[in-house]
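[Structure tokenization] protein backbone as discrete codes
[Encoding] learned vocabulary of local backbone shapes
[Protein] chain in single-letter code, fold in tokens
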Amino acid sequence: MPLFRTPAIESGQAARLDRRRFLALGGSVAAVGLLAACGDSDTGKGSDKGADEAASGPWSFTDDRGKKISLSKRPERIVAQSHPAAALWDFGIQPIGLFGPQKTADGKPSPQIGNVDLSKTTSVGTAFGEFQMEKLISLKPDLIVTIAYGPMVWYIPEDIYKKVEEVAPIAVIQLMGVAVPDAVKRFGELAAALGADPKSAEIEKAKADFEKAAAGVKAAAQTKKGLSVAVVSGTKENFFVADPAFHGDVKYFQQLGLDIVKPAKPDAGFEALSWEEAGRYKADLVLEDARPEGGLTHQQLGAYPTWKGSPAVKAGQVSDWQTETPFTYQRFTKVLNDLATTVSNARTNVV
């Protein structure tokens, strides 16, 4: 089937995808609606069928492109990109295969794979667009799951999409502009369709812990009225200011009451500034991209005068933006607890 397309992607921005992940999507993707926000599964939630009948009978699921996937029985052998693999894993669905980031340069598990036990899965590729097709075929997957940011299907570029789809149907979950709890709920719907119990005691506890952590951020934000927060990422070439309307985690921080700086001219989730312009958006607190690859460390950022001279940096109010955290209750609880502490300890009006 054809993928969503935009002029920016067609002109070559996708080539920068592996280097900066979010930055290759093109400004026009924001105009793309979040299609089919609700799932359509004939098994799982709302079904009168017993578990055995649901597993053996016809199965369908409508993904966030509005594509209905219909199979003769419920998929059991799942291959997933790192982020949805982590989300499904926390709901009790364990993919047999993975593609996308799995380990950091020092050999440790990547934050992107969350709680996934890599010893229980098979990798079919780690870099963007890398698929070991023979290995993928040998796994005999029933379903392949990935995510999307606007029209860009994550880690399955258009030139190999059809080949991958010939192995198994592809279900896509949209994350662009989707706040964390909405995304987690959507992953839960897919997991339920695949046989998980999203109302299990374990999941209910994880959800309660997540909601408690979210309430902590909201309470901290209420006590820090006037605290401005900028979410940023730096490379040697540019300083990027994140657009909360694009990033589901930042959008959620805003929904919880944080006064997030919104760049005036975002493109593909960020406004890109030269380092000479990096002082354009001032804030009391800065959340800076914590990804180990593709960006600058806090120490490296210190070499840039506009960074050292920013109010938040001078006030010592810089914390990590954990951009690689999978959208799951279990993984995001810590992010929210840490954020609540950071906001509570921050001083207002340092700008």
The CA atoms of residues 206 and 330 lie 6 Å apart. The first strand starts at residue 59 and ends at 62. The two ends are 51 Å apart (CA to CA). DSSP finds 13 helices and 14 strands in the chain.
